[in-house]
């Protein structure tokens, strides 16, 4: 069954908690999983798992050529422009970003390696899966 206006998962779980509490006060206690199943049936789904799967994930962010972006690359703040964008699965996109000001990607004081353009694959959070040795994502975009 397709619903276009399902509430978020936490709201539906709140309905299940309320149902459980109401029935408990009326002398008919039920488990939380049973309450979830009842909520699913109320929405026309056969079970909670089916309803849970039907809850729409947030729409993937749309990235456009020429769009201005900001964030951090290897820990350095940057601003730049998207020069390429290619979908890489349902939740990831490969972006080519041209930095306004080159970023020095070397921590050494003995030499520098300036980077003006990068290609990275970011998820819905605007962060790369790849991380630096200290656990920070290579790219973290500001999603404001």
What does this structure look like?
The protein has 144 residues and is α+β, with helices and mostly antiparallel strands. The protein has helices at 9-25, 32-42, 48-54, and strands spanning 68-73, 76-87, 93-104, 114-122, 139-141. The chain has a five-stranded antiparallel sheet with strand order 4-3-2-1-5, with no helix packed on it. The two termini are 34 Å apart. The model has no long low-confidence stretch (mean pLDDT 88).
What does the oligomeric state look like here? single chain
Low-pLDDT parts are none
Structural class: alpha+beta
Q: Summarize the biggest pleated sheet.
A: 5 strands, antiparallel
Dominant shape: elongated
Q: Strand fraction band?
A: 25-35%
Helix content: 10-25%
* Helical run tally: 3
Q: What would the average pLDDT be, to the nearest integer?
A: 88
Largest sheet, spatial ordering of strands: 4-3-2-1-5
| Gyration radius, in Å | 23 Å
Strand/helix succession: HHHEEEEE
Distance between the termini: 34 Å
Give me the count of strands.
Answer: 5
Question: Summed up, what is this model?
Answer:
The protein has helices spanning 9-25, 32-42, 48-54; strands at 68-73, 76-87, 93-104, 114-122, 139-141.
How is the secondary structure organized here?
Elements: H1 9-25, H2 32-42, H3 48-54, E1 68-73, E2 76-87, E3 93-104, E4 114-122, E5 139-141
Antiparallel strand pairs: 1-2, 1-5, 2-3, 3-4
Helix pairs in contact: 1-2, 2-3
Keywords:
alpha+beta
């Amino acid at each position: 069954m397709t619903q276009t206006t399902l509430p978020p998962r936490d709201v539906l779980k709140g309905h299940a908690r309320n149902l459980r509490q109401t029935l408990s006060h009326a002398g008919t206690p039920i488990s939380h999983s049973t309450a979830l199943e009842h909520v699913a049936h109320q929405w026309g789904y056969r079970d909670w798992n089916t309803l849970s799967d039907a809850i729409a994930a947030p729409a993937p962010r749309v990235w456009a050529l020429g769009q201005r972006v900001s964030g951090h690359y290897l820990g350095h703040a940057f601003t730049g422009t998207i020069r390429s964008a290619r979908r890489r699965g349902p939740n990831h996109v490969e972006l080519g970003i041209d930095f306004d000001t080159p970023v020095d990607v070397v921590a050494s004081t003995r030499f520098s390696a300036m980077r003006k353009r990068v290609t990275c694959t970011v998820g819905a959070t605007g962060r790369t899966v790849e991380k630096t040795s200290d656990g920070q994502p290579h790219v973290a975009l500001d999603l404001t």
